[in-house]
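Entry for the shared binder. Reason: the reviewer on the internal report wants the predicted structure included alongside the sequence.
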Amino acid sequence: MALPEDKRRLDDVPDAPGVYLWKAADGTVLYVGKAKSLRKRMRQYVSGHDERERVPLLMEQAADYAYVVTKNEVEGLILENSLIKQFDPPFNVRYRDDKSFPFIALTMSDPYPAIKYTRERHREGTRYFGPYTDAKAARETIEVVRRIYPICRATCVQWKRVTARGGEPVGTPCFDSHVGKGPGVCIGAISREDYAERVKAVAAFLEGKRTEVVRELEEQMRQAAADLEYERAARLRNSLDAVRRVLERQKVVSDRPLDLDVFGIERAETIAGVHVLLVREGRVLAGNEFVVDKGLDVPFGELVEGVLERYYGEAAHVPREVLVPEPPADGETVADWLTGLRGSRVRVAVPQRGLKRELLGLAAENARFALARYKHRTRYDEERINRALLELESALGLPAPPLRIECYDVSTLHGKDSVGSMVVFAGGKPDKDGYRRFRIRQAADEANDVAMMREVLLRRFARASSGDERFATLPDLVIVDGGKPQLSAALSALQETGARVPVVALAKREEEVYVPGWDEPARLPDFSPGLMLLKLIRDEAHRFAIEHHRSVRAKRSAASALDAVPGVGPARRKALLKRFGSVKRIREAGVDEIAQVPGIGRATAQRILEALHAPRRDDSQASGNGEAAGILGKRRPASEGSPR
């Protein structure tokens, strides 16, 4: 730990709520956090009791700390958010794009407020709407608003002149006035009172109060017609039609006036895609999306909290309810903070059923697309693979980046139906054509994983030395699932076959990598590209072994089930399986249907069904050397690679 001995006791840190900062030796702020008790929280970092995977790396770099005491946790959260913006610490959740969010603004302090697109949000007397994560969407919204309610643009030269003159018209019309987008402020065509009403309507529209806008326009149109102001009534009718067209394009999700934001989050190793559905008055107005630079490397609850803090630290509107896929790490404090921002109670919830659960699923699906688009645009996967291969070359002392990696695992159930798997990754990606399966040949009562691993590697590299084309290409790196015993077995097999290939063993518990000739295992940083690639390959080998083991066991179970039926020998068993395809279908068939199989009479068919429906021992749980299978999902069967 880089923190000096005299600071590890943290004696000066009070037992009070506040914000703490971990700093590097040069004073750089590495991490900003909040706590109910500064002393207890910071001691968790120093003592190693904080189980978050990135904390050890943080403490290796931390050489100093600072803290600020606050009155309560909500003040701490506000200060934390401010300090994160100020210092942009590398260990905090932050947006991948260093640009601030786009906003739509109304310059309310001007005599005739104008609308504008901006990325700043600090001017006094300006009202902001957003954030919009899509700049194009923000600009299009401005155009829609100005078609419905002609209002001045802040970039209009004539409007600037009117503003400079305290609201007095300049007498020269601007271009927008000619085409109907401008209200004619520059030539005195509208009074301040009427313009103020128009600005009020624009603000309501941008807030999402579209139905309220419709009602007001309808009332004004009827009143104008009653007053025989037909030209004004026609303009209001056109605005009303434009608002209704906008409403028709928005998806109605509820007839209740729902006011909520729905957060979908999709994580990768070190990044996460976020999509926010904005629901106002029961309609989905827009979807904001962005990418943050934390993903699987932080607890999900902490990631959710970080996303909410960063988003609502800039958002102009906080809804009544915020839906998230998992509670924030400190959900009560976050809810209190949002309540303070809104001025009324805000609920942060994880919906379990109904419409809100469906909205959460929709947001999650869009978050997956947002992350996929970001990965494609930035070539994230390709860069991670390249970095992973280079990292493995350096960390494992390889002569070159391992472009072809083979990984081996075995799966057995008390020594029965034992199988081995070989998976191949070329250029960091699965090469399914290279996958191979092995049936273990040693005695069935020997549940010796190490001996099984040695047998698999012996057969694989013996085939290579014998000229078998299926095994001709040698790998740049061999990975065996396990620890030192499995590594020793692999080295013995390679030495016996004369294969000169780098080999390592990956242990599950601490994700340690055992390298031949090294006194201590190699420890790659948590969530580093190299370690993530090793784990992905290891888990794929385990999945492939488990899949093969279950297939072998199912076939044996089918054969043994029929063998137990009196009068059913190999010929009849073969005929039954040829006719029905599986024992399950035989069990589901009727007596008459089974009796139609050549050589099977009605009495035999009855005995078969009685035997198959009798209670039997369930041995469906397989074991192996890896973690639970399925990290890459189900795959198509690979070719059988070795003789039985």
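Summary line for the report: The chain is about 45% helix and 15% strand.
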